[in-house]
Structures are given as C-alpha cells and as structure tokens.
From TrEMBL:
GO terms for cellular component: cytoplasm. This is tRNA-specific 2-thiouridylase MnmA. It is an enzyme of class 2 (transferase). Its EC number is 2.8.1.13. SUPFAM superfamilies: Adenine nucleotide alpha hydrolases-like. The gene is mnmA. NCBIfam families: PRK00143.1 (NF001138), trmU (TIGR00420).
C-alpha cells in the first residue's frame, strides 16, 4: 500500500536513511525538519546539541539527495512548553525526567503526528531503532542503538501511524548505506546529552532558571556532611560533584540516595543503599491488552539500562513492580518500560521506590 508519509528529518544520518527507505518502498514521502529552538545556534559543537541551523541545512541537503519535498516547521513554542519547562519543573520537584522520551511523547508523536494527520498524511516516519508492524512495538536488532524504551510512551493509536524503517539494521550498516546513497551526513556524529543544553552543563542550566537555593547535604544518620546551592542540581545515584568536604568514616565514595524538595535536603550514602526492590508508578500507557491481574515480565528503567525480571501488580491508580533482582539508582520521574521478550507491553512514570 502506498502511504502519504511525513518523514521527521533531524539533520542526522538516521532520519535521513529512514526517509530514503520510506521513499524507496514506494511511499509518497515529504521531509520536515522541526525547528525546536526560537534562537538556534549556527553550528553544533561536535556531538553536543541539535536543532541548529546546521542541522536544518543538513536535513535539506539529505532531502535533495533523496529527491523528496522538504519543509521546516516551527515547533519551538510547543517544545519549550512541553519539554524544556517540563524538564526544569521536574528537577525542581526532586524528580529525574528524560527529555528525549518527553519529546517523543509530546512533540514527535503528538504535535507532529497530529499536524501530519490533519494535513492528510497517513504516517510519520522517524529514524528510531525499533520495529513495529503498526500494532506491536519491538526492540531494534542493534542492542547498542535500540530505542524502544523512549518510544514506550506512545499510545496504540500513535503506533498505528508510525514507521520505523531502521529497526532491522545496525548503526554501522546505516552509515554505510547513507554513504552509498550519497547522503552527506553519513559520518556526522550522533548527538548526545540533553539536546537543548548544548554545553552539557545541566547544573548551570537549572541554576540559571531556578536560582540559588542553598541547603544541607546529610548522611543516612541525618548528620550534615556538606552544603549545596540547589537540590535540583542532583540526581539519585550521582557520585561526582557532590561537594562534600567530610569523607565517609570508612573512606568509601558516597552517592546521592534521596532528594527532598520540601526540606531542600540531599541525602548521601554508600553505593549499596541505592538498591531498589519495589517501585510504584502512575497510570500506565499500554501497547498490549491491559492485564486483568498480576503478571510477570521484564522492566527497563532507563535508556540502554539493565533489564530486570519483575512481577507487575496493576492497581486503580498505577502499578506496583516487584523486582526479582535489585535495581540501582532508580529515581522518581524516570520511566519504567515493560517488556515481554523484545516486545514492549507498556510504560509508566515512576512515583516511588522502596529499598530492601
């Protein structure tokens, strides 16, 4: 079946090859670059940042090489509201968000897809490394690039209108294919870190927006061992940059165990105190039929993170996850993606954790 496809083109190699494959499959493809910054920089710095003027030009050149129409859509206001402001407010509340996951949820598979459907397109095509037949979402075959975790927030309706042409291919093969197709970004570095913090200084980014909020750093006994300029600058599991002047009695490194916005306190302790055996979540989004009762599956708690066997107990307001093996450094605000083998069952946002 020939589809009218809107290909989201970031200016990178993955989205360019995805668009090329969709066109080669016989679909009527139009490329679109999402302008997500109201004041884009002229050039990216290596692999840091994205959505720059350079990226827009790279996307246009790739569309020309493929031979498809190309447009730039301004989604900067929506991106700032739904991704950047959400990122800041989540940290201010002591939670740890994943902005890439939020961008997929709110921008690529909400704002972009909604606009595409309104304009008569049948589907949106992206360069994510995942596999889907329109009803089932599975991991990509390249374990180092699998992006099913950040797509686990999609709804069944969104999945029906999504194409992921790269899921059956490794990244190395995609770069070689791009070179064969004459796509100039074949060797372009992947972007990493938080895309809207091009210099990688998350602490500075948050401090600029939330201001100084000094408070204590305490150990598990409640003794003050240091001071911070803002609890929002810390994440559970963090080891470096704690600014603790007093070493632990046993000389071992300390890690962030808890962040309390109510008391503006950061609690630190030994690495093993990060172990979590039970998780509660908010309301889930199911990509499989919702279960009627408890069931076993596996859970992934961060992008490219370890997978843990677990028992899921559905409740009226969310899920209770009982982990067969402890997970380390789990933070409220992160997403728990549930899997049956390589199939994504659904996802939910972590609300609380319980240590053994």
């Amino acid at each position: 079946m020939t589809l009218r496809v809107l290909a989201a083109m970031s200016g990178g190699v993955d989205s360019a090859v995805a668009a090329a494959r969709a066109a080669e499959a016989g679909h009527d493809v139009t490329g679109v670059h999402m302008a997500l910054s109201s004041n884009p920089q002229s050039y990216r710095s290596g692999a840091r940042g994205c959505c720059t003027l350079e990226d827009a030009r790279d996307a246009r050149r790739a569309a020309d090489a493929i031979g498809i129409p190309f447009y730039v859509w301004d989604l900067a206001e929506r991106f700032h509201r739904d991704v950047v402001e959400d990122f800041v407010s989540e940290y201010a509340a002591g939670r740890t968000p994943n902005p890439c996951l939020r961008c997929n949820e709110k921008i690529k598979f909400a704002a972009l897809l909604d606009k595409a459907l309104a304009l008569g397109f049948d589907a949106v095509c992206t360069g994510h490394y995942a596999r889907s037949d329109g009803t089932v979402l599975r991991r990509g075959v390249d374990p180092g690039k699998d992006q099913s975790y950040v797509l686990a927030v999609c709804t069944p309706e969104q999945l029906r209108h999504a194409l992921f042409p790269l899921g059956d291919t490794t990244k190395a093969e995609i770069r070689r294919e791009a070179d064969r197709r004459g796509i100039q970004v074949a060797a372009k570095p992947d972007s990493h870190d938080v895309c809207f913090i091009a210099d990688g200084d998350t602490r500075g980014f948050l401090a600029e927006r939330l201001g100084a909020a000094p408070g204590p750093i305490v150990d598990t006994a409640g003794a003050r061992v240091g001071d911070h300029d803002g609890a929002y600058a810390y994440t559970i599991g963090q080891r470096r940059g704690l600014r603790i002047g007093t070493p632990a009695p046993d000389g071992r490194p300390r890690y962030v165990l808890d962040i309390s916005p109510a008391t503006n306190t950061v609690t630190v302790g030994p690495r093993e105190a990060l172990d979590v055996t039970e998780i509660t979540t908010g309301a889930p989004v199911w990509l499989a039929p919702p279960p009627a009762g408890p069931f076993g599956c596996s859970v992934q708690l961060r992008a490219h993170g370890e997978v843990h066997p677990c028992t899921v107990e559905p409740g009226p307001d969310g899920l209770r996850l009982l982990l067969a093996t402890p997970a380390r450094g789990v933070a409220p605000g992160q997403t728990a993606a549930l899997y049956d083998g390589d199939r994504v069952l659904g996802s939910a946002t972590i609300a609380t954790t319980l240590r053994p």
